[in-house]
Amino acid sequence: MTLGEWPSLQHFPWVQALRDCPQDPVHHAEGNVWIHTGMVLEALAADTRFGSLDERAGDVLWAAAVLHDVAKPETTEVQANGRVTAKGHSARGALRARRILWELGMPFALREEACGLIRYHQVPFYLIEREDAERIAAAISMVARCSLLALLAEADIRGRICADQGAMLDNIALFGEFCRGQGCWEGARQFPSPLARFEYFQKPDRAIGYAAHDTTVTEAVVMCGMPGAGKDTWIQENLADWPVVSLDKLREEMGVEAGDNQGAVVQAAKERAREYLRRREPFVWNATNLSRSLRGQVVQLLTAYGARVKLVYVEAPATALFAQNRSRERVVPPAVMERLLGKWEVPNAGEAHEVVYCVR
């Protein structure tokens, strides 16, 4: 699946929403987000470097360009002084784009790289000014090619009317030079080991080339995925003899519905996990864990007890997922499914000692 030319996409509601979304005239004198998106696509199509990309990279970059500002309608605010802001539209846009591209059937790897480009599409404008530029560039390279990000950023700047276009293009060029120097221009930043990579992203003071020593004393598997994606099936097929801390089972035991406050369930799960961790007994933590922040809390708990953590991400196609949810003994209410999809972040290689993707 690929996203077609701009005129062929006009029937989508998320495209139509861009027409009514204003932009700050200082940075976007061309007009609304719909006008800007069309100009970005024109700039990208005119770039000979885009034309020389292989089909896969071209599809990824085109999808990211189409959707790079898809969340501006829900994040835009007109301030009292007349200035227009859209704070957080990059991060929110990656979430919106993931849902859109998943429902359209874009292959997992291509979709996730497009979402990575959307998530970080503004970074080349300012990275060179940041003290933590090395860490940000490494994080970007875990989810997207920095060379494609630079092309997207350049098209974003050329596809608008603004006074600082020249300065922004200079910053994008400097972003490219920096990423080349960091060894993350065309691929992921390399680390001495998976352990070194994980600890680098967990510890702000960790040097990027530090060869971390393995001090883990036990193992834990953390499941991630929407309800009905197949997490239970994966556990049965791969770790049937491991004990499982299941938030679904705890909800049943405690009489808590999916739409209720989950605080007591999570605390009970953490206490059961601590029992296994104290005994150094490997186990599975089975929950949706769809947001990076929520996964991070679980991983932090496990590593504090010396566990080596494997994240297992399970995904099903949209039609299959909703059908499987309807066939569950305890159906997750549609409102809860929508809320989960709204915070759906796929884990990347920097979040655990090992990340496994099981995508149908």
Provide a brief overview of the structure:
The chain has 360 residues and is of the alpha/beta class. The protein is 50% helix and 9% strand. It has 2 domains: 177 residues, Hypothetical protein af1432, CATH 1.10.3210; 142 residues, Rossmann fold, CATH 3.40.50.
Structural write-up:
With 360 residues, the protein is an alpha/beta fold. The protein folds into 2 domains: 6-182, Hypothetical protein af1432, CATH 1.10.3210; 218-359, Rossmann fold (3-Layer(aba) Sandwich). The chain is 50% helix and 9% strand. The strands form 2 sheets. It has a 5-stranded parallel β-sheet with strand order 4-5-3-6-7, sandwiched between helices. It has a two-stranded antiparallel ribbon with strand order 1-2. The longest helix has 18 residues, at 165-182. The mean pLDDT is 95.
- Biggest sheet, spatial arrangement of strands: 4-5-3-6-7
Assigned CATH architecture of the largest domain: Orthogonal Bundle
Low-confidence blocks of residues? none
Q: How many strand elements?
A: 7
Order of helices and strands: HHHHHEEHHHHHHEHEHHEHEHHE
Features:
360 residues, alpha/beta, Hypothetical protein af1432, Rossmann fold, 2 domains, 5-stranded parallel β-sheet, two-stranded antiparallel sheet, 17 helices, 9% strand, globular
